[in-house]
Write the structure tokens for this entry.
Amino acid sequence: MPRKKTEPQSIPIDSIKHADESRTNIPTKELRDFVPDDELEPKMKLYPRNPDLDPQLVWRGKDEQDSQDLEVPVVPVYIQEKVHPQAIIQDIKQYGKQEQPGTLDLFGSDFNGLDFEQLIEFYQHQQKWQNRMILGDSLQVMASLAEKEGLKGQVQMIYLDPPYGIKFGSNWQVSTRKRDVKDGKAEDMTRQPEQIRAFRDTWELGIHSYLAYLRDRLVVARELLTESGSVFVQIGDENVHHVRELLDEVFGSGNFMSQILYRTNSPLGATFLASVTDTVLWYGKSKNIIKYRQLFKEKNFGEGTPFDRLELSDKTRRKITKEEKQNSILLNGIDTRFYRRSTLSSAGYTPSCTFTHTYQGENYSLKQGFSWKTTKEGLNKLGLAKEPRKNKLYNFILTD
């Protein structure tokens, strides 16, 4: 007896939508003939040079560059194709159900939410938000986003992954998997003439051209950022010191946030002490209002630095039992605060934190070379909260 055919389970398909966001409508390649002549003609955007800067790097040709404002042509960016993954999957599912399947619409429908009359009035209407992947010179692309699409001062985060500036004889990187390109090698050559034209003579003066190239892009990137925005620049150890000086010049050394190291390889076969990391430099546009979400790592109950004590709702305190550590479910439904005991002193001399402290009628002082972890006012606050103990420990509450 043949087995009964079972219908495959339907998996719901959804995608992330930004319903509250919109962006300026821009022309597609097919509609470029509708673009007005004044929009087709590149307009020059000037970015003033700032002479009042922190200590800065000097390279060949910089004085000539600083004698005039940075001039960037603002050109139209054309949409070559639209890909809507959710629509593609739904089309494929529908295609499989048809008895006489038609042609798949691999690029989905037009989700702009504009009629045709509005669609060809470029840069005048807001359409539904769509993410974009743009191929082009980053300097001109950023200028176009800022000036034509109104994104100046609207971008929260920019991540720059420029060439590392390792081999200046070759100026084209074919693959993101291979950064160390070799000049004259066939496998490191591009076959696309427009890319050869775009990258010809990029590093004519070696490191000097590289620094000028990167500074211009940092200047324009800063204009795109909102006041609470951040820029991250990924770079290797060969030029990280130069790039940080450029970022100090453009963003100000006071807006440096962090220098993040991440491992890239294993030091196998190194002749000397191996370099196994690359760097991500993080700068904010305005450090005092930077947008930042603290990173947390999930911690299993009882692991790491132990919050091994608890305070019950009636203020009684006790240690967590071995059984409770092994099975935290035993503490479910109990109104508790977890805490651990921590010392009130720290090694080193801090004048504002070195004094004799009086608590509950007794005087406490520290031996030479140690200071309190906080000021007299801070210790008095701990006393009001009844957290200190007479052996110079205090109860560090987990929720604090």
Remarks:
- Residues 11-41+80-131 form one domain.
- The two ends are 69 Å apart (CA to CA).
